[in-house]
Amino acid sequence: MKLIVGLGNPGKRYERTRHNVGFMVVDAIAKKTCTKVNKNKFSAKYGEFHYLGEKIVLLKPQTFMNRSGIAVKKWLAFYRSSFELLDMIVIYDDVALDFGAIRIRDKGSSGGHNGIQSIIDELDTNAIPRLRVGIKGANVKGDLADYVLSYFERDEARHLPDIVEEACQAAFSWVDDGTIVTMNKFN
């Protein structure tokens, strides 16, 4: 079994904001696989599908970004007997990366991202595979919280579907080949 976690904030107000790129990627994977991510369990929305004989769970924590670790920890506790951290990848936005850049890592610091920091804190490890999607545009100024909760600029919004598609391909590569091969393909 593999767990693909997309980070974001629940609710219509945040739906198309920069901070919800993780949710956007999970939604795109769900669409590609005809999976509904509409069941509720352990403070998250989830859906399941099978890919090449393996069960894949798509997860969108509903705890708001800075408490994402609570939902992830509950899911891992539920599957504790059959689950390794290496069987999970977390997808989220990264304001330190240029818009559209994709980076995969098998561990590391939060880089100031409250969602992944919450997961690191709850699981007491930074050895968490992650797929980061760059959201840094040309106009990053002012309060960082306001920026990540803002909507994409018109030109960025035009390119967003291609970026989400590339992140989907990276997620499927991770399922197929693991973190190292995926890093070499997409970083």
Provide the residue-averaged pLDDT.
92
What is the class in the CATH system? Alpha Beta
Enumerate the spans where pLDDT stays under 50 for 5 or more consecutive residues: none
Strand-residue fraction?
A: 15-25%
**CATH homologous superfamily label:** Peptidyl-tRNA hydrolase
Shape: globular
CATH topology: Rossmann fold
Helical stretch tally: 5
What gyration radius follows from the Cα positions, in whole Å? 15 Å
Structural class of the helix and strand makeup? alpha/beta
- What is the H-and-E element order? EHEEEHEEHEHH
- As for the number of domains, it is 1
| Through-space gap between termini | 25 Å
Biggest sheet layout: 7 strands, mixed
| Widest beta sheet: strand line-up | 2-3-4-1-5-7-6
- Looking at the overall shape, the CATH architecture is 3-Layer(aba) Sandwich
Please report the total strand number as a whole number. Answer: 7
